[in-house]
Design goal:
The complex is a heterodimer of chains A (122) and B (420). Chain A is built from three helices and no strands. By secondary structure, chain A is mainly α. The longest helix of chain A has 32 residues, at 2-33. Chain A is flat and about 70 Å long. Chain B is mainly alpha-helical. Chain B contains 17 helices and four strands. In chain B, the strands form two sheets. A two-stranded antiparallel sheet of chain B has the order 1-2. A two-stranded antiparallel ribbon of chain B has the order 3-4. The N and C termini of chain B lie far apart (99 Å). The chains are: A mainly alpha (122), B mainly alpha (420). At the A-B interface, helix 1, helix 2 and helix 3 of A face helix 3, helix 4, helix 5, helix 6 and helix 8 of B.
């Protein structure tokens, strides 16, 4: 039991650290092997040979935010469905109908967003 | 019989042997666990990195054959040494950090994508009793760690301070987060029947279900499997969903400024993610390592390779889709169809649940047939409605263009007539 606690999420941590160290080691090895002869032209921002005009870090379209908002709505609601799914084997028919109602509300929200024109990419 | 047993449990036996060896050397249980976990992590990472090398070669060769080309054939016999030549080039190529870039964000982004992609292999069941870690939330974990690539791509696009890179990053975020919704929605049916979020349990359920031989979940939920696979391709941003790096529009998207080893890490992240999706599909829908005759780990590799071949096949044949088509397909087709599927599945799977005293004739097979048929019908209906609507939209657009052209021709003729 003790071993299970130690190794369950412990391995995820070990895997994460190992993967990070291996990849960092690869980058470091490459930095030892490769030539390093920078000059001003080489380090300029690439834009098909032109000088870049204007700032890159600007405010961007609000459309992306709207899609992200719809995504957050769905992601959270779908995660709430996972516990229902795990317990599905012992659910009564009435509880199943309630779960269905939950998905119907989700679908209604999507149709509402659709009618409002949120899902159009202009 | 004994030899057969050894071959079937080869990975498990080797793992136990190493654990015993380290335990004998060290003695302390905690240190033994740490050392063996580290070894297992290194083996998994090496496996993923090596399969990345093999996959780049296989993909080039197979896509070349699909497109009536020969593919790599110069380096070594049949061009087999091409991945090694690539590696040498990546290691020795000069690497630049643009002066305008945000140095920290720019340099960490490739590490983030590669690390996130490799960590996903921690929960993959390779054979009975052989799994990095049997997390009780394995399914959610794989989706969560897969989202790491979204962060990395946004970091790369923003940190590069390049307009193409930023455009690519915006598209990516919109695409990857969008396709996560149908992916999650189509995981729920699998959890419904398996009754667990652990990948090991899901595989075991597909080998035996209530004592009777199990059924791969692809037969239970063919529609969910299809939508999961397509969303998976979109999640890994492979062709035909590669519009975040569309070469012909935004040069290379988010990794336009990267070169050398950092570019290689992005490439590795993409392939390792695609392979992880293949493994996930094989585990969730095709029964994982279950199969006759061959040892379990061979079966898992065969299934994953088959799924990856489908991915390569799609890459070799389909053109890239447009941004608006990508969003329409996701939000107006996949998400509503998946939600509708889920509503039907909840009801049908409950009514045809095996073990119901009122209906003793219901077996897992009957349940599978009921869920498959009742989800296929609305899916096919939705597909025909969507295709009819798209065709009528296209016809209307073409008719409008035709009337415009006719009006232009008429205008040109009258103006010429006036000049005479």
């Amino acid at each position: 039991m003790e071993t299970a606690v130690r190794t369950d999420f412990g391995f995820v941590g070990v895997m994460f650290v190992t993967a990070f160290l291996l990849m960092a080691a690869t980058l470091y090895a490459a930095s030892l092997l490769r030539p390093k002869k920078p000059n001003k032209e080489k380090l300029s921002t690439y834009e098909c040979g032109m000088e870049t005009v204007g700032d890159t870090w600007v405010q961007f379209r609000s459309q992306y935010y709207i899609f992200a908002l719809v995504f957050v709505l769905f992601d959270v609601e779908v995660l709430l469905l996972f516990p229902i799914a795990v317990a599905f084997g012992s659910l009564s028919l009435f509880a199943t109908l309630q779960a269905m109602l939950f998905v119907v509300i989700l679908l209604a929200a999507l149709l509402f967003a659709w009618r409002k024109g949120v899902l159009e990419w202009k | 019989m004994d030899l057969l047993n050894i071959i079937n449990n080869l990975l498990k036996i080797i793992g136990d042997w190493i654990y015993g060896l380290v335990h004998g050397l060290v003695g302390n249980l905690l240190v033994t666990d740490l050392i063996t976990m580290g070894l297992a992590a290194i083996i998994l990472c090496t496996f993923a990195a090596l399969s990345f090398m093999g996959l780049t070669y296989a993909e080039r060769k197979i896509v070349a054959r699909i497109q009536d080309r020969i593919g790599p054939n110069q380096a070594g016999p049949f061009g087999l040494l091409v991945p090694i030549a690539d590696g040498i080039k990546m290691f020795t190529k000069e690497d630049t950090t643009p002066t305008a870039a945000d140095r920290w964000v720019y340099n960490i982004a490739p590490l983030v994508i590669a690390t996130a992609a490799l960590t996903a292999y921690a929960v993959l069941p390779l054979a009975p009793g052989v799994v990095g870690t049997n997390l009780n939330v394995g399914v959610v974990f794989t989706i969560a760690i897969g989202s790491g690539s979204v962060v990395a791509i946004l970091m790369a696009g923003w940190g590069s301070n390049n307009k193409y890179a930023l455009l690519g990053a915006f598209r990516t975020v919109a695409q990857l987060i969008g396709y996560e919704v149908p992916m999650l929605l189509n995981l729920i049916p699998v959890v419904l029947i398996a009754g667990s979020l652990s990948l090991v349990d899901i595989v075991n359920v597909q080998s035996t279900l209530n004592g009777s031989p199990g059924i791969p979940f692809v037969l239970y939920f063919p529609v969910s499997a299809l939508i999961f696979l397509i969303s998976g391709i979109a999640e890994t941003a492979r062709s035909p969903f590669d519009l975040l790096e569309a070469e012909s529009e935004i040069v290379a998207g988010f990794h336009v400024e990267y070169s050398g080893m950092k570019f290689a890490l992005f490439f590795l992240g993409e392939y390792v993610n695609a392979l992880a999706v293949s493994f996930m599909f094989a585990t969730l829908f095709l029964g994982g390592y279950n199969g006759p005759i061959f040892p379990p780990y061979v079966w898992l590799l065969i299934k994953a390779a088959a799924v990856f071949t489908i991915l390569m096949w799609l890459r070799g044949t389909l053109p890239r889709i447009r941004v608006d088509q990508m969003h329409t397909m996701n939000w107006k087709f996949f998400v509503p169809i998946s939600a509708l599927n889920l509503i039907i599945l909840l009801l049908v799977a409950k009514i045809f649940q095996p073990g119901n005293a009122a209906m003793p004739w219901v077996t897992p097979g009957v349940q599978a047939m009921a869920t498959a048929i009742t989800t296929l019908i609305p899916f096919l209906a939705g597909l025909s409605i969507a295709s009819r609507r798209l065709r009528s939209q296209r016809d209307a657009a073409e008719a409008l263009a035709e009337t415009r052209r006719a009006a232009n021709r008429a205008a040109v003729t009258t103006s010429m007539g006036g000049a005479h």
